[in-house]
Amino acid sequence: MADFPGNLQYTAEHEWLDTSSPAVIGITSTAAEALGDIVYLELPEVGASVTAGAVIGEVESTKSVSELYSPVTGTVAEVNQAAIDDPSLVNAEPYAGGWLLKVDVTATGPVLTADEYSALVGG
Asked: Which residue numbers delimit the Lipoyl-binding domain (predicted)?
């Protein structure tokens, strides 16, 4: 059974976000495990506008390429250069060092609690 941090919010597309300002966004351990070894990240640039539910980048692994969807609307405040330089951080620490970006949020899209997300993915 997967354990999802209760202090985070989740999307049906397997992204997570916290409630800090700016909000930190990443992909869940479920997504990281399903993708396998992540080898490349394509993320929006600092200053870019993102829209909740819209594609904001890609995660490439040894198995596939998956799109990233923004859980929020706002402006990108920071990207995780360490994860871009070493995408395996996303596999190793999806909720810590493997975060993807920080966004100054103006609106949040549909999100789930940890329990709701766990039920969705069969955790």
From this structure: 22-104
Tokens of 54: 């819209």
CA atoms within 13 A of residue 66's CA, in its CB half-sphere: 20
For residue range 40-51, list pLDDT tens digits in order: 999 999 999 999
- Evaluate if pTM is beyond 0.90: yes
| Residues contacting residue 22 through CB under 8 Å, at least 6 positions apart | 74, 77, 78, 102, 103, 104, 105
Segment 26-39 mean pLDDT:
96
**Which three-class secondary structure state does DSSP give residue 16?**
strand
**What pLDDT score does 1 carry?**
43
Residue with tokens 């985070």: 8
| Angle CA 46–91–37, to nearest 5 | 105
What are the phi and psi torsion angles at 118 (to 5°)?
Answer: -60, -40
Q: Measure the N-to-C terminal CA separation of the chain; round to a whole number of Å.
A: 5
Residue 122 pLDDT level (bands cut at 50, 70, 90): confident
